[in-house]
Amino acid sequence: MIISNLTCLLINGAVVTRSAQRILDQARGYGLLTTDELVRRTGLTRSDVTSTVEALLATGVLRERADQRRGDGGTPLQIDPDRFATIGIHLGRRLTTVGIGDLAGRVVSTRSVSHHEGVERNLDRITPWAHRMLAELPGRVAVSAGVVAPWRDLGLDPDRTSATLASGLGLPVAAAHHLAALALTETRQHSSGRTLFVYGRDTVGFAVAEDRESSTTVTRVGRLTHVATGSATPCDCGRQGCLEVTVGDHAVALRAHRDGLITEDAIGELYTAAIAGNFRAHALLTQRAETLGAVAAQVQRTVRPDRVILAGQAFTSYRPALEVITRSYASTVTDPAPVTFSRLGGGMQSSSACTIALGPVYADPLAVVGDRVGQPVGGR
Ligand SMILES: [Zn+2]
């Protein structure tokens, strides 16, 4: 049940030893930082910070912001958001999403294509897609890529997939489980302690992240496919009422289509119908929200986190259901951990893939970026 491919754990300080990594981690977390602040925050010596900053400025990873100078604290530095790019690839159960990100992990452009010809066919097309997207962002040089997926569901091997993509893109490619990637993307915004992420779209799963100062470690990733909900929906496993066939986006859309609520089996149409006042559509989504809230509460009872973050379109896409989810969550167990919804919203897939894409750069920024300086856009 527990799926682990956590190569991405190297990303965020867990195995950080080099100065450049530590400086970049701080710059990513805090935005603008002076040399003094970097010395304080990284614990490195002043001469280490000064020489590393010089090298990062020379390769264009960092830039100076004289216009942001405060008092006599020296010229602030920041990660240059314009010069380099990462390519984040999210292979979902039904969609391939390609995002172009900057070196601070922000997504600057994104594109999704359905898997109707199979995920392998889409894998062959990723290099030309990425190159076209980069061509629309003139001046940016791609330096690394990341690929995230529910690997087992797709029947893909992360190492083989990233090797194939690396040879197509001509870039280092990091691979991670999609839920681990989500946890690493979101925990940057929170304080220390243990965070439980419960994710729902077509699949439902969870990830647990432990945050200590500058390092985040994803300690568990799991699927909730066959958790019993008491519904009458039959599942491939032979039982009925399993969680994913009851609440997954595609499963819900299929049921609504079969019941004549929508004309296509597309979840977006169900949201539109519910918002337009279709009571049966609203009732279906409310019932799903109750189930999702209750399941999140049950998972948090076993994980005992400091906070819970609910993510993925099944949780976040239908605004009127948010309140139903939180109410159901709060009433399922006594004294549950505080719960919030992911701020990544619909951009979650490309954001989390772009976070993983930063792995090779942050692990060795001078080598990875230095290799690329002066190369044409598109990275080859
Ligand atoms: Zn089942």
TrEMBL record:
Q: Note the Pfam families from the entry.
A: ROK
InterPro entries referenced in this protein's UniProt entry, alphabetically: ATPase_NBD, ROK, WH-like_DNA-bd_sf, WH_DNA-bd_sf
UniProt name for this protein: Putative transcriptional regulator
